[in-house]
Amino acid sequence: MTLRLSQTCQHCSLRQLCLPVGLPEGELWQLDEIVQQRRPLSKNADLYRMGERFDTLFAVRTGAFKTVLITDDGTEQITGFALAGDLLGLDAIHSGQHPVSAVALETSSVCAVPYTHVDDLAGRLPTFRQHMMGVMSHELAHDENLHALLGQRTAEQRLTTFLVTLSERHRARGLAADRFHLPMSRADIANHLGLTQETISRLLTQLRRRGVIHLHTRDLHILAPDRLRDMAGITMTRAVSNA
Predict the structure, then answer these.
(1) CATH assignment of 153-232, given 1.10.443.10, 3.40.718.10, 3.30.420.40, 1.10.10.10?
(2) In angstroms, what CA-CA distances link 137 with 95, 134, 142, 236, 239?
(3) CATH 2.60.120.10 domain extents, the chain
């Protein structure tokens, strides 16, 4: 079920991360006309399922999601995590079907935008079209970076890169980059990074003992951000893509 917006895009705190960033100030009303809010989804609920027909883009308003690919042998592979302000469904534009499922990691809500209206806006507003092209290009770059991460990095580098990326994504949202909640489980992180849950637990314990992080349940405090970056072994840029 969808609801009319209780808060306009113009006054949303996530506007600089979401669809409105591509619209001139005087054109935001056009997006407000087509955006609807879905009722909140409970933890583990599907926003959409792999193979379903694509007709809507979703912007995460609150909470977080994981995107899950089911391989030919029935194995689940977590391809990414979407936080507030991220767009879901872009990877379905070409084929018209969702190539992955989107599953709520906690109680979450989204804004729904019919893609036909998005396409119409992109055709009429050059700045919005450029923004959409940039977002889709960023998605492709993220996929390439993930492939390189999983294939060429040590287990420690995979995890530390993941944590640094999450930190930068929180910074981009105007939130604390050194203190945040992990909505995903250790098993989810392990699946995403191609490691075992035991390896993730061991590495997190090592980071805590070295004084790099403090972790209480899922509340993470990065104590030594520069050291964490050094351990990742790469030069990080401000990340806004799905980790």
Answers:
(1) 1.10.10.10
(2) 17, 5, 9, 18, 14
(3) 2-142
Taking each helix axis as running N to C, give the angle between helix 197-209 and helix 155-172, from 0 to 180 degrees, rounded to the nearest 10.
70
**Do residues 76 and 191 lie in contact, with contact meaning Cβ atoms separated by under 8 Å?**
yes
**Ramachandran angles phi, psi of 3, nearest 5°:** -125, 150
pLDDT at residue 4, rounded to an integer? 44
The first and second tokens of residue 9, run together, are 């895009």
Superfamily per CATH, domain 2-142: Jelly Rolls (2.60.120.10)
Residue 243 in this model has a pLDDT that exceeds 90: no
The CATH 1.10.10.10 domain(s) of the chain lie at: 153-232
53 SS3 class = strand
pLDDT for 8 equals 62
Is it the case that residue 5 has pLDDT exceeding 60?
no
| Of residues 90, 39, 48, the one with CA closest to residue 66 | 48
Question: What is the pLDDT of the chain when averaged over all its residues?
Answer: 83
| pLDDT per residue as tens digits for the range 56-104 | 999 898 999 999 999 889 899 999 999 998 889 989 988 999 999 999 9
